[in-house]
Amino acid sequence: MGLGTSSFRSALTLALLLTLSAIAAADIIYLNTGGIIKGEIVDEDDDQVIVKTKYGEVPVNKDDIDFIERGTVSEIFQQRLKKVNKRDSDAIVELGGWAQSVGLKKEAEQMFRMAIEIEPNHYFARMELGHRRHKGKWLAVDEYNKAIGLVKYEGQWVTKEDAQKLKAGFVRYGDDWIKKDDLEMARKGYRKLDGKWVSKEEYYKAKGYVKYKDKWVKPEQLEKIKKAEEARARRLKMLKLAKQIKMAFKIRCSFQPDAQKMHLERFGKIVQKASEKIWDMTGGGIYIAEAHIYDKKSDGDVIVQNLDEIKVRTKGGSTAYGYAQKGGKMTVGGKCLILTFVHEFGHAKFSLPDHYGEQVDCIMNAGDGAKHMKFMYCTNQSRGKQGCWETIIKRYPGLKRPKEAGEDFDEPPETKIIITDN
Ligand SMILES: [Zn+2]
Ligand SMILES: [Zn+2]
Question: How far is CA 277 from CA 2, 72, 199, 271, 339, in A?
């Protein structure tokens, strides 16, 4: 299941999130066994309650009931707010996550703001509020964009150079800027040269560009590109000779909605950063060698559910940072956190389980353990099972385990990003 915020305190809360989300009015009956029944209490006596559920009316013995939360989700939120420890930022974020999952957006935001009053560096609360870290300070999105030198043009944050082009009536077309009126012809493969429509080929040749691997580049860039490629190829060969690389993943990432090139490219950067983390976490032994990113399909190893969100909707209708099946596909948002990507990758490609509330540095921590999430695979065997690292090393013998999260193992080989905007 999803990379929990601290909000996913346990499997129990999670089940609740999944079942409750669509309903505005509900009573929630918590059983001693840990189970939950959700519905409307239509009758009650000393011995039992009758709950009207989606599947019909169910009698429940009071002896089997731990406690009941009654009322609409707003009422339940208020009850929970009264009970929550106002000094416990994790508990407050958990309540915020719950509020969010049942559609109480304003209340959710209130909770996240409350949490950062107590703990200014609460990562999940900051992420939920859309804050970004810049030079050691947390900034709201707009401030962050300003700080990195972007300007607002017609509601969008763009670079200063782009804003000038846009103001002058140009639009982006691939790597080029062209006049808005020329867009239709450009789509047909033509370019305007001295007021005349010519083929792309003629246009770039006239401008002195050369073709290299299906791309038109300036001659002065060509040398640089080739040198960088050679250096990368040499290094890759050396690593292969040293048998340091145990696995080079090739993955396919499919955006479900119709995406623009910028969305696909942005996701490419997420995959590249995730690859760097996995590289360091496996002592420079595993990385993502290639990612094909495309849109309007759902057939990838990685399903990207939306364009601009860090979270996704689960089948039950609630929200989560992401989800995956062990050894299966993973689903994330178009702007997912690197933490989320690497966590879900752990489920999907290494068949690793979630663990909850455990005081170990591990990327697979979830729920109450989410605050211990680190870019690290644990050797924690306290669950009577093998640790995450043992699972991985069994499959890929010879990997080196970093001593601590963040230990650097040089640059990983390049992650080749292939983009197809359907
Ligand atoms: Zn998980
Ligand atoms: Zn672990």
Answer: 19, 43, 43, 10, 9
